[in-house]
Amino acid sequence: MRRAAIVAPVRTPVGAFGGGLRPVPVEDLAATVIKETVRRSGVDPEAVEDVVFAQSYANSEVPCVGRWAALHAGLPIGVPGFQTDRRCGGGLQALATAAMMVQTGAADVVIAGGVESMSNIEHYATGVRWGSRSGGAMLYDRLDRGRERSQPEWRFGRISGMVETAENLAREYGITREEADEFAVRSHRNAAMAWESGRFAKEVVPVEVPQRKGDPVPFERDEGIRADSTVDSLARLRTVLPGGTVTAGNASQQNDAAAACLVVAEDVLDTFGLAPDGFLTGWAAAGCEPATMGLGPVPAVARLFARTGFGFDDVDLIEINEAFAVQVLAVLREWRLTGDDRVNVNGSGISLGHPIGATGLRMLTTLLHELRRRRGRHGLLTMCVGGGQGMAALVEAA
């Protein structure tokens, strides 16, 4: 089976919820990274055979975002596209799906990506199409509703949202509020240092943000990093649930961003004049209890290592999506890697943010650029997924 090469991975800066990228719709974010991946790689747009894009909070404003974004980015009419959704793992699933396409010979060159504009996720109603005789209609927040409806209530009982699943892990593993805040501070510091040292410069493409008056303004830097965070400052934040550990300071953010790359069959790289940044070595997905969804990386990595023969000693860097600090700490305890300095060396969801459908490709982009900078070889990418899933992937730097 042919190896899947990863070419020209890029990402936008990550915008804060309601922040600098709020005026930029999903289709513009997605088109921005598609255009940049094509430009950097130098691929002939006619050679692109499909576009696989993840979006977890899709709606009918941009149906089938892969095709929509391909057209919006100016790719030839003959380039099709489609959409994937594995919630938090959607972007990584887009990469895996594109890889399977080139590995099996269904295509030679595919664009994989992910996008989310959480600032623009709408409210909706379910009971108004056919009307009602009297009374009002419930207007749901799609963000909150998606978390509440992540699993069938008849089977698992009511789970109010992802914060509840994190608190379950905090109790099960005896993780304290102070430990969670310490990890959050580390995430912010790592992300801030990455920007200050120029480590993100090569992976980020600016986004043009329209203004009410005048020319668009470039948005160039991740917006959620709080370099001045300390354990003392985070300790002053109130917990989301009474008596809990999770606060706005030690949980992932809601964000806007996009990321993309080319996925190309290794045996045609020279044909199209493409230079790989890395290769997808393997990937796996696994289910877990929805009430402790944060442990998803544990069974996913176990399955991945069983398939590939790899172990933790074989990887140079480890990325975890940082849904919550307590979630990462619980996973690291299961792996017996507490305090491992290979984990999230440039920050992750707590500091950089978690734009759901884009996060997997954002993490891939950061991981490959950092592996190449350090002259490392193998990286492990892992994600927990709302509803009780985990994903993991191994990549090799070129």
Describe this structure in words.
The chain is α+β, with helices and mostly antiparallel strands. 32% of the residues lie in helices and 20% in strands. It has eleven helices and 14 strands. Strands 1, 2, 3, 4, 5, 10, 11, 12, 13 and 14 form a ten-stranded mixed β-sheet that branches. Strands 6-7 form a two-stranded antiparallel sheet. Helix 1 crosses helix 2 and helix 6 packs across helix 10. The longest helix has 20 residues, at 177-196. It is globular, with a radius of gyration of 20 Å. The mean pLDDT is 97.
Quickly list its features.
acyltransferase, Probable acetyl-CoA acetyltransferase, Thiolase-like, alpha+beta, 398 residues, 14 strands, Thiolase_AS
Return residue spans where pLDDT drops below 50 for at least 5 consecutive residues: none
Structural class: alpha+beta
Label the overall shape. Answer: globular
What order do the helices and strands follow? Answer: EEHEHEHEEEHHHHEEHEEHEHHEE
Average pLDDT score: 97
Radius of gyration: 20 Å
Note the beta-strand portion.
15-25%
Query: Portion of residues in helices?
Result: 25-40%
Largest sheet: 10 strands, mixed
Structure annotation, total helices:
11
How far is the N terminus from the C terminus?
A: 18 Å
Beta strand count:
14
InterPro entries: Thiolase, Thiolase-like, Thiolase_AS, Thiolase_C, Thiolase_N
Protein name: Probable acetyl-CoA acetyltransferase
Family: Belongs to the thiolase-like superfamily. Thiolase family.
Pfam family, one: Thiolase_C
